[in-house]
Amino acid sequence: MRGKDAIGVAVRGPDGQIFAGQEKLDSVLHRRRFARAPFFRGVVVLYETLVIGTKWLMRSGSLAAAGEGVAFGGKAIALTMLFTIGLAVGLFVLLPLLVAQGGVTLLFGEVESAVGLFFIHILEGLFRVAIFIGYLALVSRSSEIGRVFQYHGAEHMTIHTLEADLPLTVENIRRYPTAHPRCGTEFLVIFIIVSILLFSLLAGVELWIAILGRILLVPVIAAVSYEVLKFGAARRERGFWHMLFLPGIWVQKITTKQPDDSMIEIAICAMQEGLAANGDTAPAGSWDPPREPIPDVGELAREMEARLDAEEAAAKGEAHPNEGAEGPPGAEGNETEKADGAVTAEGSATPARPAGGATEGA
Question: Within 10 A of 169 (CB to CB), how many other CB atoms are there?
Fold first, then answer.
């Protein structure tokens, strides 16, 4: 949960416990006066959201992996972030351009007329929208991403409850929808609309200039999109602004889902941490769940690895209760088969940890 100067984080640990923490927004950009100036502030918010969001998602994943006795290093997080940025630029910025220009050139040859170039530009915009919606619809079919979208819904429902000045409880939060007007999904929709307009400035240029220009325009589009959202926030119920922002609510039907109660608990905890980090408090009567500080991932991984090894050794010991005792000739093979079967049964009977370590965050 992001506030003005800090964020609150809550994570479901491998044993079902809640880990929580806070982080100040104190990057060099955040501390500079120009960071709050129009157009600059949009780029700063995008940077902080991308970096901090990716870092905490990876840290959540690291806690899940630690629950299986595995630790992710800083290089893995950095590579993941670079891959994510590269994928986003390639998939949503460059691919629509290449498909539109390549497809029209293949079907009709070189296009030089103003009408033809305008057609390519519109086609590129339609491809960008289709790829964006198709990508979200595709990844939402994954059970893991589906759970992320459930947490996304829990976040929005909790914010609705706070804005209504009601106590943050599961029962109150259940009253509210999963969509929220200030969602990052809405920013992405506005980003795509603005990109269609600004990329028109590059119509008719050589392909390498078109590619480079689109990459360089990404922060400009982010800046303009943020200002559009900020200006339209108080006007969103009026005709033009309502229609402009409505697709962002529609797309949230994909990116948010109804959470279960355990997910809402994490959202409440993250909100409590975020409010505390920014010097605020939740409404009276709000649930304040017990939680632990977020542990060192490497230490947790070593502890879980030792515990898993101990459980495995114990399971083998139960599977071989008469190991060393003599049996009738030829019985060794059958004994081994039964022992292996017992190990398997013992493993399946062990109380299961939540899937994938079940480390979740809101």
Answer: 15
